[in-house]
Write a structure and sequence with these properties.
A 6-stranded mixed sheet has the order 6-7-8-3-9-10, sandwiched between helices. Strands 2-1-4-5 form a 4-stranded antiparallel sheet, with helices on one face. It is of the alpha/beta class. It is about 40% helix and about 25% strand. The chain contains 10 helices and 10 strands. The model has no long low-confidence stretch (mean pLDDT about 90). The protein binds adenosine-5'-triphosphate (ATP).
């Protein structure tokens, strides 16, 4: 049984997206509740990234309805989606390579600040106070994800695993309703994966809500509260990891003739 006691954070329904002759998503929907880690899995080309791109405003869907924390939202542009409350990380890390770790997180925080351009130009008192508060919060977030000691290091000098943590800190800095992680374990070794898992557990325990795409099915089964499985753009299963693992269609998509 789904735990229906918790507030719905993201509710999307009827999402379809076609690229020329290819139906990349057909009538996909899901309901994600506060404090859940919700997984999206499926074989290569199943439509996972397309789904992420649609809900975060990178692709315009052909059909679909979208609600975030009870409010309808139109995912027309990435910055509007971030403001509405969805923060994401990318499969190919997108940091400001020559800025410090601290500055990268401060950038994330700026979408929630008030002083604006004039304040920045004239360096008003309000602006300076706000900058100090942003820097303090950014440092707290770096500590939270476990890379506080690298605050003054340029992003490009951090290890791969630490860059992924930095992306998560930057996402958290926007105070999101939902954090969308696109293959956060890609390229990580076993130790880094264990640490990533601990970090995601920690974020969930702080009552944050996470949507995650990940190829490492074993990691997902141990981590997620609920999972949706896509295959050729269709939702073939939804449920707890235990339910999904037993589903015939899922077994066939991964192992049978449907494996691709
Ligand atoms: N911009 C695009 N233009 C045309 N086709 C696209 C575009 N983006 C994705 N597709 C196609 O849509 C289908 C779904 O791709 P998508 O990247 O969403 O799958 P995925 O499940 O994320 O795959 P992977 O696990 O390999 O990352 C694929 O057949 C892909 O080639």
């Amino acid at each position: 049984m789904a735990d229906t006691s918790k507030e719905v954070v993201l509710k999307v329904a009827g999402i379809s997206k076609r690229f020329g002759g290819l139906q990349a998503l057909s009538d996909v929907g899901m309901t994600i509740r506060r404090g859940q880690v919700y997984g999206l899995i499926g074989p290569n080309g199943a439509g996972k990234t397309t789904f992420f791109n649609v809900i975060t405003g990178l692709y315009t869907p052909d059909t679909g309805s979208f609600e975030l924390a009870g409010q309808p939202y139109a995912p027309h542009a990435v910055h509007l989606v971030a403001k509405a409350g969805i923060a994401r990380t990318f499969q190919n890390i997108r940091l400001f390579a020559d800025m410090t770790a601290l500055e990268n997180v401060m950038v994330g925080r700026h979408i929630r600040t008030h002083s604006g351009l004039l304040g920045a130009i004239f360096r008003t008192k309000g602006f300076k106070a706000e900058e100090a508060a942003i820097a303090k919060r950014a440092q707290e977030l770096l500590d939270y994800v476990g890379i506080g000691k690298y605050a003054d290091f340029k992003a490009r000098t951090l290890s791969y695993g630490d860059q992924r943590r930095l992306e998560i800190a930057r996402a958290l800095a926007t105070d999101p309703q939902l954090i969308a992680l696109d293959e956060p374990a890609a390229g990580m070794n076993a130790t880094e994966k264990v640490m990533l898992r601990e970090l995601i557990d920690r974020i969930r325990n702080d009552n944050r809500t996470i949507l995650i795409i990940e190829h490492d099915v074993k990691l997902m089964m141990g981590l997620c509260d609920r999972v949706t499985v896509l295959d050729y753009g269709k939702q073939i299963a939804e449920g707890t990891p235990a339910e999904v693992q037993k589903n015939e269609k899922v077994i066939e998509a991964y192992l049978g003739t449907g494996g691709h």
